[in-house]
Amino acid sequence: MPKLKKTARRHAIRKEIESNPFVTDYELSTQFEVSIQTIRLDRTHLEIPELRKRIQQVAEKNYDRIRSIEGSEIIGDVIDVSPNEHATSIIHVNEESVFTRNQIARGHVLFAQANSLCVALIHQPIVLTQSSEVKFIHKVRLNETVRAEARTINKSDQYYTIEVKSYVREDLVFLGTFKMYYTSEDEQNG
Amino acid sequence: MPKLKKTARRHAIRKEIESNPFVTDYELSTQFEVSIQTIRLDRTHLEIPELRKRIQQVAEKNYDRIRSIEGSEIIGDVIDVSPNEHATSIIHVNEESVFTRNQIARGHVLFAQANSLCVALIHQPIVLTQSSEVKFIHKVRLNETVRAEARTINKSDQYYTIEVKSYVREDLVFLGTFKMYYTSEDEQNG
């Protein structure tokens, strides 16, 4: 494909982001054979916000469909949720999420993303974690983006069993099974 | 035992805190049959800081004995550590650690306390979590104090297996097994 002229490229970028809202500036720059700076200028011209903001906009729409937890209490941005069936969230691994000395993401950060996604997935007023088995398969490093995909694999009267697979790009980095207790009635404290 | 006069009581409180630095003001007030306010005044007179500060003072001493993680990166205060053998930490469950709607501690907070205690316990430059099985046995509520006790149950060339039991008072609230990878050599990133 010959390199596009500016107007044609901007048109193509808009279409690309519409069909894949989570495409990065880097991926666009490779696809259209221009610099990341050019992509940023194109987005500014098109009034399309940066990736982080696009993710948050999608996440905020999803919060209306989540019953068991406040949106602000979820670790990560929920970019997709089908109540009681499956859900996906994204976190960006920042300085606070890694060990200072080796810049590797801390285990509990991946656990927290997966666990809160399980809570968000279940459309019940009270959801609590009963037990969990997790495997940390690949190291996750500073500035990487982790996409957690949760899906229900079993449901009983009191429990959902949910499998979570987390990826950096296409690499599986974390695998977890969460047994989640739920009740449709508000419980008394104490 | 007859109720003590002020001077005798203060003397006894000092001895009690020396032998049990983690006794609460509430426990002292019950033991000496005076109000919590009186215990606070007694401590002020004796120049003994509040419990939270006493825990932090002990924790800071322990950080010298921890090799795999910065003291500030540990979730909780480490009040006891025998490198490669056992360790104990304490967290106070505050507003940030609970679900807003039911004031129950979030699972990943207990997981983070246990997991970072496992890292702290192992006296090696690089320690990473390989896998983990956890059970959330009792609900933990706002303002409760959780004491996590970790001990090594197996050690091989590359892995430690560590069991963590976490308690609120004498009640077991969390049980976890963590398989921890370690290496004595610094790894390259990338």
UniProtKB/TrEMBL annotation, chains A, B:
Q: Which UniProt keywords apply?
A: DNA-binding, Fatty acid biosynthesis, Fatty acid metabolism, Lipid biosynthesis, Lipid metabolism, Repressor, Transcription, Transcription regulation
Q: Which NCBIfam families match?
A: PRK04424.1 (NF003359)
User: What name does UniProt use for this protein?
Assistant: Transcription factor FapR
The organism is: Staphylococcus marylandisciuri
